[in-house]
């Protein structure tokens, strides 16, 4: 199957593209910078903000994995108008399946960035196309980067009343690949990590793994988004869940040796060699490519 991936250079995109190739699909990857096509990955230039290159990218594909997002600072520039442009192009091209990645809690707590994701879901569900919405909890990779950004502070503010359910991008990518192969589900599917941790436990585990010593100051995070998190609106009991824990992501267990030479020399799913977060500037909460409104240089 030929599949277009938007946000292919983002955190989830860099995990999904190789997963689709491994499954035998032909992948067309959309990027705002020109890239050289290799193997079963055809790179095409396109911009979901302006719409330039989008009809060409959509032409001839059977399914679309729409991962691109504006991020928290993008004010929905891609989540809403970009999704609308993509839907129009997909209808014109006769695409059979559009999978949108969203966030757990978008329907229960449409505040801040989540309201843009919910509107993008509505556009996809009312598009007339075959569709699937995959809602994920925050990525391990995003939380790791966020804590790293705060690590320069001598004291880390933590709110022990705020729960998190981190999930690994590799497992979300595997779930998305399976849904694309299965065809349109015409429903919203939630996918979360294997455990729920409060902010204090999450931070202490990260500090130990990074061999850092920082004081943690209990505070209460303000705002409606954190209030929604305290109410457990951004976690999920849906199954299946991911299996890679926060601890395993931060400190991957050693691979189990076997008589199979290949398996002994293959990196584990949580090893640095298979992590899609090598570019720290591309981390956004629950999304992929951190689209922001273009500015004049």
Order of strands in the sheet with most strands: 3-2-1-4-5-6-9
User: What is the radius of gyration computed over CA atoms, rounded to a whole number of angstroms?
Assistant: 19 Å
Number of strands: 11
Strand proportion: 15-25%
Describe the secondary structure blueprint for this structure.
Elements: E1 2-6, H1 13-22, E2 26-31, E3 41-45, H2 54-58, E4 63-66, H3 81-93, E5 97-103, H4 113-125, E6 131-136, H5 140-150, E7 155-158, E8 163-164, H6 169-182, E9 188-191, E10 197-198, H7 199-209, E11 215-218, H8 224-230, H9 246-250, H10 261-264
Parallel strand pairs: 1-2, 1-4, 2-3, 4-5, 5-6, 6-9, 7-11
Antiparallel strand pairs: 8-10
Helix pairs in contact: 1-6
Structure description:
The protein is 31% helix and 16% strand. By secondary structure, the chain is of the alpha/beta class.
Which descriptors would you attach to this protein?
single chain; alpha/beta; 10 helices; 31% helix; disordered C terminus
Could you provide a short overview of the structure?
The chain has 297 residues and is an alpha/beta fold.
